DNA sequence: TTAGGGTTAG
């Protein structure tokens, strides 16, 4: 049998080995195919397809006649092999040799720029696109949209998008996903509605974008309607799509639905498990998250970095150092220590009280990314070491461009340490030098800093200067400052603003009620309490937990149910007598109810943090350091008491409350009594 | 023949 020349080309497409390709290549040469002007492009593609880029490129280099399709075959080969630098190089060479690129060339070249985040080169290519008359090509168009989107230039993407004469689903999707990924979920949804109005039908990729948008803007209804739409249209639901669904429900706090979708899945992978673990961890269900980590191993999955990081987050949340350490050990033995994992460990050690361990992990990271820096700065912040946070920030800004999160961490650190002057300065630098538009969070930190230092007038002026409508967090910060410094008139203004928001958080309501009580405006305090009852809210019970021999023990206020209750109260009573001899006077101001003095003193004595401390003292060896975690703020009297206890029992006691750390040692606290 | 996507740290 003899192959005819025209039969060689289709045969090439089926080749699975480069030896066979080179034989066909030789045959083509012998048959004189190329002397008749046939292109070498199919041969180049065939070599590339079997992974032999070297032969493909060599063939291209030796070819005397290089037409566009040959250039494209090579450039596409490098693109598929994920060599974006080579793609751009070949594109440059092509333009230099005066060959006119076509739709494929531009598309692939723009994609390479997107991967390289090279906006400048991308825009240069776009100029060439216009010059060559390809600006209305949907492939080229969606590629440039994606370039702008991935470089965070949604405004520029919008300009191109609006000018497009024809838009297909991919163009719409690129814009929608672009908005989602730059945190603009609202705009993404609006654009999808417009897409629907213009008669376009969304596919699975659009739905994925909308799922992320739903999690982004906490719109559970949107999430479930996307889910419904996918079922009605019978869009394919593979493991990855279902995993995204689990993730979406989990991020929206719908853990029951997330779990149901998870259980119904025919197949799961490590990512699916990680998504659910992180969902539980981020919604405060640390125990469930850690259980899932164990469960996944029981059914044969090996935890990867993502699942371990999520589990670490759960450990940080409840302050279980022993588990955190064991995950650290597991990770060190089984996975590669990357930036993500290291950052997770930094966070865990810092939140379990060991800032020095966090620091040594940080020091060992060879190339630190933005998030590493942001995390360590935030960690020093919650430990009340504002100066150290500032020092790190100074080092950071010489190496990497700080972002909005960096400044949020820095301002919060300065605020926790009461560094008012520095706070004013860096807020100013952020706005004027780094051109970062202050967000609600930045304002809240700065208002908090000023108000806590007693500068409530200035704090109020800062709020007035805001371009956007001040949110709840800002007013709450002002109110707590006024509460602390007994500035009742501005405080009352702030309290009324807070109430306008109908806060969902019980703690916020409690703050308002407590403020009115402190201002001795009992009728308003009572009416806020009544409002809380009417809206079905009750005060979140304060609890404290302490880790003893690797087990967490949690205590509510006046926890009489505990088997060691008698011993605990006995110890607290002895300690109180010693403290009184040392000059301790109960600060009954911190009991914010209208009660008799002796009842107030009694109420202070049974605060959950004291029970947890006493339990820890009773059940650990002398000298052992204690870590207490509290779900609310630690009260001023307990703070004073803990200082005394640290002297009497000669122990280090670390109390982590909802905001920050208090490290008690020899009668002093790391926060310098400023909190 | 080329374009859009899916877990994790702040």
From TrEMBL:
The keyword Cell inner membrane does not apply. Pfam families: DYW_deaminase (PF14432), E_motif (PF20431), PPR (PF01535), PPR_2 (PF13041). Belongs to the PPR family. PCMP-H subfamily. PPR repeats lie at residues 67-101, 137-167, 168-202, 269-303, 369-399. The lineage of its organism: Eukaryota, Viridiplantae, Streptophyta, Embryophyta, Tracheophyta. It comes from Solanum pinnatisectum. One of its GO terms (biological process) is RNA modification. This is DYW domain-containing protein. It comes from the Eukaryota. Keywords: Repeat. GO terms for molecular function: RNA binding; zinc ion binding. Residues 583-675 form the DYW domain. Transmembrane segments: none annotated.
